[in-house]
Amino acid sequence: MLANAWLIPLQKVDDDARAVHLGAVAAMAVTEQQRDFVGDPLRMMLVGLEEESRLPYVIESDGVAVGVLTLQSGAATLAGWPEAGSAWLLRGFLIDTRYQGRGLGSLAARAAFDEARKLTVALGGDQAGVVLSVNERNPAGINAYAKAGFLDSGQYLGGSAGPQRIMHRAFT
Q: Less CB within 10 Å around the terminal CB: N or C of the chain?
């Protein structure tokens, strides 16, 4: 059983390492339902590398790429949050289907929260926490975020895949 989750920042690794990580992302097993919720993981990482406000990460556990996520500044309203810059947006979060059910989602969500807090301090940002939206048809995702300390903050109807739950975790 895998028991750790590390975030590899794609923008901070050299070109060769980035190519290896992106190759691992391209090989991730994703169900159609996951694609409905978050799209294609490789496309998400490539878009994240091109857009300044997005910080794409590969999630690794015991040296194996097991998922992806992106932290984005100035975009919290995309998850139904009232103020765009008041929280980091955690988006495009996905665990490879071969590694689900091992607690990696909760571990990676906690790691993303910790990373966002460090980024806020390092960049002198005004973010007070992390927000995300998770599809109501994704109880495993809702549970993983709750285990990572995220609280349900209501329903959001702006998602393209149906009703979402807004989940937030404050830094304080």
A: C
| pLDDT, tens only, 110-165 | 999 999 999 999 999 999 999 999 999 889 899 999 999 999 999 988 777 789 99
Distance between CA atoms of residues 122 and 69, nearest Å:
20
> Which residue has tokens 């590398």?
49
Strand partners, 28: none
- CA 71-69-169 angle, to 5 degrees, is 55
Measured CA to CA, the distance from residue 116 to residue 150 in angstroms comes to 14
CA distance 146 to 33: 21
- pLDDT above 80 (res 83): yes
